[in-house]
Amino acid sequence: MPQMSRQDPLIEHHTVDYVPLAERHGKARDLFTLWFSTNIAPLPIVTGAMVAQVFHLNLMWGLLAIALGHLLGGIVIALASAQGPRMGIPQMVQSRGQFGRYGALLIVFFAALIYIGFFISNIVLAGKSIVGIVPSVPVPASILIGALSATAIGVIGYRFIHTLNRIGTWVMGSALLAGFVYIFAHDLPADFLTRGGFNTAGWLATVSLGVIWQISFSPYTSDYSRYLPADIGITRPFIATYLGATLGTILSFAFGLVAALATPEGTEAMVAVKQATGALGPILMVLFLLNIISHNALNLYGAVLSIITSIQTFASRWTPGIKVRVALSGVILAGCCVVALGASADFIGQFIGLILALLLVLVPWASINLIDFYLIKRGVYDIASIFQADGGVYGRFNLHAIVAYFIGIIVQLPFANTSLYVGPWANLVEGADLSWLVGLVVTCPLYYCLATRGQAQKVRAVKLGYTD
How many CB atoms lie within 10 A of CB 278? Predict the structure, then answer.
């Protein structure tokens, strides 16, 4: 296994280009710590509190729905992550092998928009967290501190991100477990086990939320596994990513649910965490702030790679390096800070609602990505073609993938229940957005049939002498 030498630069020098085998390093367990630590943060904790506060489930049914949703959705993120060592390129660049060189631009655009949206939301959240810890710091200064810190981590890149999350796994994991111990070691409300109950709508909504949460990470998972040795296989990266992503989120969602049930009904989620954890509360708030910043570096890193991928689509001979990544990070930072500083009080809620609506476009992409990699091409791609100006063997557009992709979006719309659009069948199960399920069920077999039929036609054409 290739080892990193002392001469290797601290700042990552690759962007969207292929990582040569001689530069591969790391172990599969690095993926566990990355995704475990990343998901121990305020946002999943607040979302977990919603299980009791919004969906009105009790502890038992809430925990069951949380676990099932993330265990199902985790399959998607783990399968996407396992592609990285085999391909050695970022996830969005790989999409050229499925959609064609120019056909992949649409999903790359949506991915960049989602990353930037989450980056803005998280720097606002980080700013508010800093003010909550040190009230004397002005809000604008707090936002800038959070933004600059995340940008510095994102600029340094892959290796530093993994290092921080290895440390974060032990620190954040221990802190969360200490929080659980503190809550259960003290008196709990009389209705702790009985508050809420079971309702079909709330239970399905919680399961769906877990599935969507995991799928939302899939467009950039192989960005953090592409440096692993190519001979590491599929199984080990899959297991490491699956366990890290699911355990981290299940623990965070469960902690939010427990904190909500351990405090008076109607208590705001993070206030509930402070109240339920007593003396540990201030320590947890500081750690959560650090984790917001660390996690937000992933959003910036993904946004930069997506934008570079878009530009490089029209400049096949261009291989951007450190300077381009640093400059683009600065541009994104400046633009996002302007938006964040002018944000309204309810900005985070509104913006997350917008971004979650855009996740409608990720479900058919994830379906096509996994079907193509595991069932159609079986992990064998022509990397040189992916970087050729005409798309090489993948062409400029792959109509089979594009048709399946748009149909996958369209069939979700009647069932969509988002802040931007509510479909006529959105309340088929009240409160539960099941559009993702329709998208998966339709897109997977549709793309498989179109792709395999296309391959069969090419084989027949070759046999009949119609093509070279």
Answer: 13
Cβ-in-10-Å burial (0-12, 13-18, 19+) of 178 comes to middle
Q: How confident is the model at residue 464 (pLDDT cuts 50, 70, 90)?
A: low
Burial of 457 (0-12, 13-18, 19+ CB in 10 A): exposed
HEC string for 313-373: HCCCCCCCCHHHHHHHHHHHHHHHHHHHHCCCCCHHHHHHHHHHHHHHHHHHHHHHHHHHH
Q: Evaluate whether 389 touches 316 at the Cβ level (below 8 Å).
A: yes
CA distance 77 to 82: 9
| Rounded distance between C-alpha atoms, residue 468 and residue 458, angstroms | 10
Q: How far apart, in whole angstroms, are the C-alpha atoms of residue 14 and residue 227?
A: 10
Three-state DSSP class for 67? helix
* C-alpha to C-alpha distance for 338 and 31, rounded to whole angstroms: 33
Residues 388-436 have pLDDT tens digits of 999 999 999 999 999 999 999 999 999 888 777 888 888 777 767 788 8
Tell me how far CA of residue 400 lies from CA of 101, 134, 280, 407, in angstroms.
14, 55, 54, 11
Q: % helix / strand / coil in the chain, to the nearest 5?
A: 70, 0, 30
Q: Which residue has the tokens 């909550």?
A: 132
pLDDT tens digits for range 277-320: 988 988 988 888 888 888 888 888 888 989 999 998 998 888 88
Q: How far apart are CA 69 and CA 81, in angstroms?
A: 19
Mean pLDDT of 118-132: 84
333: left (phi over 0), alpha (psi -120 to 50) or beta: alpha
Of 299, 297, 250, nearest to 48 by C-alpha is 250
* Residue 90 to residue 16: CA distance in whole angstroms: 6
User: pLDDT digit string (tens) for 2-49?
Assistant: 344 444 556 777 788 899 999 898 899 999 999 999 888 888 888 899
pTM above 0.85, yes or no: yes
Do the beta carbons of residue 278 and residue 69 sit within 8 Å?
no
Given this model, what pLDDT does residue 404 score? 96
